[in-house]
Amino acid sequence: MILKNGQIFTALGRFMPADVEIEGGRIAKIAPAGTLDGADVLDAAGRYVTPGFVDIHIHGAKGADFCDSVDGSEEYIRTMAAYLGSQGVTSFLGTTMAFSEEILTGIFNTARPLFGKEGMGAVLRGVNMEGPFFNKEKKGAQAEKYIVNPDIAMFDRLFEVSGGNIRLVDIAPELPGSLEFVRHASQKCVVSIAHTCATYEEAKAAYAAGATHTTHLYDAMTPLHHRAPGVVGAAADDAAHAEVICDGIHVHPAAIRVAFAIFGPERMCLISDSMRACGMANGEYTLGGQKVFVKDGKATLEDGTIAGSATCLAECFRRAVRFGVPLETALRAATINPAQAVGLFDELGSVTVGKRADLLVLNRELQPDEIFIGGVRQ
Asked: Sheet containing 290-295: which strands, arranged edge to edge?
């Protein structure tokens, strides 16, 4: 398959006119526009050819939740993967909630055979272990009864159960034993700061110990204040990446623009943080064992606490552009940066010869006209 005459989004985060050849599920060749020919050609003239979106923080979609798989039912993960693939998200990390070790063990046992599996739609690339090592005062939509202090032995057991597929684990750095946990866990996966009351100094200490990531910037953390910079200020200083929910509900569009201005185009990651209501109608759902009510795209607990999003990463990307983030910057934050943040960039996340042919052909409204996952047209 040859994608011809499109505007290719390069690994440098810029567009250029080019042809792309797909062979054996990989990007085989990139050549000047109009120079490649073959028996199977798709004319992408007037459209963008981009990497597939990479969602490193997603709980659920289309009525399914990653944590539903606790009982061995793969159907929930498959439902998520199929929906995400149809929207242009080609890789994702199944994201947990604060649960007991027993429940998390069940989830990871179910997911283990599906890591890297082709043919489901989007490819499940690993786990984002969001919880249970949080500060209860910043629990957000997490169930307080499961929240505990950092536990290295518990993490190691779960890492083994997952087959080494935990790619990201969250922690509140002010908790007892947190820095020892960061030093240990960062040798196995990415460590992120999340659901925390940490001061600027406490967050700085966690980054110095080996944390590199920041979970849903602004949400469930100490804010940026001119005399107390908090986690946001420490992340601006030291974090390799910071993720932000760009649904326009969790974070005001102006604060989205501020985040990109502070962190720059190379450090921001767009995420959905979506729950099972993503792709579904208004109604009552669940998240982490708690009731969630969704109305007009806003998901809340019974007490009004915002509970994840109901917006797919593909739409978060389009909203980022609508909010004033430059197209190239928003695309980078939905593809290149998240792949780099969790160690997947060698294989995916950019239009580069030799990488997986996870590609989108986007029209001028930034909707996917064509989706390729591992070179297979969806």
From this structure: 283-287, 290-295, 298-300
Whole-structure pTM value: 0.96
Residues linked to residue 128 through DSSP beta bridges, in sequence order = 95, 168
Measured CA to CA, the distance from residue 34 to residue 82 in angstroms comes to 33
Q: Provide mean pLDDT across the span 20-38.
A: 96
For residues 93 and 116, the answer to whether their CB atoms sit within 8 Å is: no
Are residues 126 and 93 in contact, defined by beta-carbon separation less than 8 angstroms? yes
Confidence of residue 292 (pLDDT cuts 50, 70, 90): confident
C-alpha dihedral sign at 335, 86, 67, 301: positive
The three-class DSSP label of residue 284 is: strand
Of 211, 207, 161, the residue nearest 190 (C-alpha): 211
Give the SS3 label for residue 207: helix
Across the range 310-337, mean pLDDT stands at 98
- Chain Cα centroid distance, residue 36: 34
Convert 5-66 into a string of H (helix), E (strand) and C (coil). EEEEECCCCCEEEEEEEEECCEEEEEEECCCCCCCCEEECCCCEEEECEEEEEECEECCEEH
pLDDT band at 364 (very low <50, low <70, confident <90, very high): very high
The answer for 22, left when phi > 0, alpha when psi is -120 to 50, beta otherwise, is beta
Contact 374, 358 (CB under 8 A): yes
CA–CA separation, 124 and 111 (whole Å):
9
* Residue (of 117, 21, 129) closest to 66 by Cα position: 129
Active site (catalytic) residues: 273
- 162/69 Cα distance (integer angstroms): 13
Euclidean distance between the first and the last CA atom of the chain, given in angstroms as a whole number: 13
State the DSSP string of 111-170. Answer: HGGGTT-SSSSSEEEEEEE--SS--GGG-TTS-GGG-----HHHHHHHHHHTTS-EEEEE
Burial 62-99 (b: 16+ CB within 10 A, else e): bbbbbbbbbeeeeebbbbbbbbbbbbbbbbbbbbbbbb
Helix/strand/coil for 216: coil
Distances from the Cα of 182 to the Cαs of 101, 169, 188, in angstroms?
Answer: 19, 9, 10
Provide the pLDDT confidence category of residue 71 given band limits of 50, 70 and 90: confident
